[in-house]
Amino acid sequence: MSTVAPPGTPTGSSASPTPSTTPSTTPDASSAPAPTGRGRTAVDWRIRFGALSVIWGFSFLFIKVGTDGYAPPYVSFGRMLFGSAVLAVVLLVKRDRPPRAPRTWAHLAVAAFLCNAFPFTLFAYAELTIPSTLAGICNATTPLWGMVVALVALSEDRPTRRRFAGLGLGFVGVLVVLGIWQGFSGQDPKGTAMALIASASYAVGWVYVRRTLSGTGDSHLAMSSTQLFLGAVQLAVVAPLVSPLPTALPVVPLLAVFALGALGTGLAFLLQYGLVAEVGPTTATMTTYLIPVVATGAGVLVLGERLTWNVPLGALIVLAGAWLTQSKGTGGRAGGGNVVARSAAEADKGEAAQS
């Protein structure tokens, strides 16, 4: 799940935001630059693709374990602290520098709230009452929210009938997951609503980034690391106001928070950025369709979460709807591309080749 909102999105492209969780969405292949050999590394891209899918899929398990020992705001704070530390190290190694313009920092602070601090914390609160499997599936609705937000905020976006059908299908899938015909099938409505709002926040954040942070001239890595840092600062201020400071440091939840930040936020960003540079955004962002599968498997096998028949069925419907909202209909233009993919591929290509 994507966790940072990189700059440099072309103004004329249709944006359908993603996450968690970022997870990312499949963009129009025509907008993706042809992969070049410059971005290739010693590790085969298929291995890195699989690792990225597993890391992002396990993020929901890490959140669940982290909240066993720490209040949700501290789980999110630790996540961004460790994630920004990873990116800061890479920033130093590459001898890059953070943005200098105060205006850029102000916009990044808003982006950090919409794309990181707020949704991360909501997901952590949600997993106090819902399974990690359900949280992972809710995260997959981000492309659907992205289309809704684009309809309101992006006048140049002209969705096709195919994309409208995908939007309706996706939300039918959400209702199937929840078992709406039998009173939410035992799921907590409040926790589910928080997870869905978190996914919608990603969508709003991507549109904000597109409108305010395109063409700043700063590197992709510098912008992303600064955004995560600002998100960590925001929660460092807010967390003590809404939750008591931890009186103990339980090891297993602490390790889960560390993995969530260092792997699921910091390393995952670097892996995705390298994949986009090597094989192009269309292939790299296919992790979108594997993340709910990994999250469900991890929740059931590791945490022993209960899985009823409607959950995997609804998840498949959600993913089918998300795919339709990102696909090209007959006679229509492509669905909104992933901001992460396009930005990483089109902005600061020289740096992308070195990731």
Written account of the structure:
The chain has 355 residues and is an all-alpha fold. The protein has 14 helices and no strands. It has helices spanning 45-66, 72-93, 102-126, 132-139, 142-153, 161-178, 189-212, 220-242, 251-279, 281-284, 291-301, 310-326, 339-346, 349-354. Helix 2 crosses helix 3, helix 4 (132-139) runs parallel beside helix 7 (189-212) and helix 5 (142-153) crosses helix 6. The longest helix has 29 residues, at 251-279. Mean pLDDT is 78; it is low at 6-39 and 330-355.
Layout: helices, strands, pairs:
Layout: H1 45-66, H2 72-93, H3 102-126, H4 132-139, H5 142-153, H6 161-178, H7 189-212, H8 220-242, H9 251-279, H10 281-284, H11 291-301, H12 310-326, H13 339-346, H14 349-354
Helix pairs in contact: 1-4, 1-9, 1-11, 2-3, 2-8, 2-9, 3-7, 3-8, 4-7, 4-11, 5-6, 5-7, 5-12, 6-12
